[in-house]
Amino acid sequence: MFETRVTELLGIKYPIIQGGMIWLSTAELAAAVSSAGGLGIITSASFDTRDKLRDEIRKAKSLTDKPIGVNINLAPSTHPVKTEEYIDTVINEGISIVETSGRSPEPHMKQLKQGKVKVIHKAPGGVRFAQTAEEVGCDSVAIIGYECGGHPGPDDTGSMVLIRATLDALKIPVIAGGGFADAHGFVAALALGAEGVLMGTRFMATQECPAHPNFKEWLIRASETDTLITQRSIRAPSRNLKNEPSRKVFEMESRGATLEELLTVTRGTNAQRVYFEGDLDAGLAECGQVVGLIHDIPTVKEVMDRIIQGAEEIIKNKLGAMVASP
Prior knowledge:
By secondary structure, the protein is an alpha/beta fold. The protein has helices at 5-10, 27-35, 50-63, 83-92, 109-114, 127-135, 159-169, 183-192, 201-204, 213-221, 244-254, 259-266, 268-277, 300-324; strands spanning 16-18, 40-43, 68-73, 97-101, 118-124, 140-144, 174-177, 197-199, 227-230, 238-241. The protein contains 14 helices and ten strands.
């Protein structure tokens, strides 16, 4: 059950994808998702050398014989590893699925396709970005609604509208992201016409995620109103959990702070302290509104099983009974 063009394209059992999350999408997390029937993704930007990415891919392959993907962020950065080098490493290690994000993958499509890589482009917040991805040859698009953690895009469009609008415009398979964490959301995405879901926040609150216990406990205490979008002033909106740094950035932007001033708070080393040291007011922590639906820290397999079994229950019994009613 739940066979779609996405499961066929990626060679996976269930159309559930763990989105690439900086620092948190490690071999252990990705392998757990893939072993449970979905697609786990390692984030290349977490590694500052090609060798470290190579080693992480090999570790993931030692933990599962199921397909693994790698996220490659194409946004401008000061990262020491060039995008082409990341792609070479991915191809050389036999990875056949790449999630691109940040900007159009067009400049890299020739290299990816020559390496026989299937490309899922993560398109935040706008149908036009998804259309560009299809036009340049991507195999699938993950359309990301305003509810998502991290970067929701510029248009503030929610998933319910965005998914339908994207499906009307594209022929390639569409994966729904932003606001999905359980069986009800999974069924809703499929009912809207998506052929899979992409989840990040739900997988942060799992046993296999490498984040500090303090951070995971913060997630399960948070409500759907406990996030805040910052960095609109520098055209890089980001949804983060509410804490002192996120409120400070919001206030700094309201008075016209420069990028250099904002970086004193938003730099990645501060966020790493949140994730790995459990210092919850050290920096920004990306998180989606769906955090309000997360109340425990199960294994990845438990998350996956709940979604699939719950979806079957919803479709067969609840929705089926409604359709059968006179």
